[in-house]
């Protein structure tokens, strides 16, 4: 990918963290955001998950995040998102990850419904390969679902979000895990009880639910009443669609066995006739040594290895940042979010000075009764009233493309998507004086 400037102007000051030049924000959550970035030493593109140290400490999330980082460093597999390194400044923690730019598997299901059986099997095979490898390293994911499965540009599946994972060393004397976690619709029945569970069997159950969703386009266990949902899961009460082949039905039935002792094991799945059709054994070289020194350094109070983040004025948006704006990029799975609550965004260009753009945004937002927080050329807008999914929150940022041309991005970071659409229509009418060219509201709803 090209990284040259799009104008002949001397490059402005851009945000740099260590050897990485930060670009567009790809996703945002309560405790972190993920940015597109470029390694200026070798030209590689990566994704950097940025966490606020104070919030991590305030919410007592240090051990959980250290566990996630250590887990991802331990797992070196082609179907698992790779973690390159960890850095820290006085205020932030930076987790440098493999850039997976094909979106979520969830998005494919949401857009086109159920997949062809052969396509569903291909993804399921890659999922089982990844999960089997994790289990061989004593790592249990515990939150497997389509939203946590990303696709690269070649369509290869990548397991992400190890925030709820557990190591075998966390198993108690009875040989079981005792923390109930995960998304209810994908969670094994024994996890919902308080009697302990085997992490291997629980992950296999989740894989079975994922396979069902891929092939049917809907969940096997679903009910608006949480008690009824739990009953369906405990009894493995679901109906197999008639369009499923007999081989698929047989395998799913063995995976979604409510008894973890008789539930099929991965070794048996690998020998299943339906599973083995067009199966390709993964081939990859493993790194023998896993160094966690950078993980420890990121969380201690030593200033020896701290990096700095510098930024002065509106960032000059160069080619690599425009590439990062591609609709294919979707790293929302690196955050906790509601299923189906896909991030929304839009952008417009302006030939007005950046200070004027910021002032107009602030004026338009306040006229709609939104709180405004400013930091340089970034703004956080939040509504006063609570909607269907809480208060609507919008992040904006101004980028410089040329001396007299700026791009302004708006991203929904909280609240309901339909409310964001309504907000954008009213909000954009107050920006007519600064907008040169704007994406339509249909673009906003991608």
Topology, element by element:
Elements: E1 16-17, E2 20-28, E3 32-39, E4 45-52, H1 53-58, H2 62-74, E5 83-88, E6 92-98, H3 105-112, H4 117-136, E7 139-140, E8 149-151, E9 157-159, E10 166-167, H5 189-192, H6 199-216, H7 226-234, H8 246-255, H9 266-269, H10 273-276, H11 293-299, E11 309-310, E12 315-316, H12 319-323, E13 345-350, H13 354-367, E14 370-375, E15 378-387, E16 390-402, E17 405-414, H14 417-429, E18 437-438, H15 441-444
Parallel strand pairs: 12-16
Antiparallel strand pairs: 1-2, 1-11, 2-3, 3-4, 4-6, 5-6, 7-10, 8-9, 13-17, 13-18, 14-15, 15-16, 16-17
Helix pairs in contact: 4-6
Tag the structure with descriptive keywords.
disordered N terminus, 7-stranded mixed beta sheet, globular, TATA-Binding Protein, 18 strands, 446 residues, single chain, Transferase(Phosphotransferase), domain 1
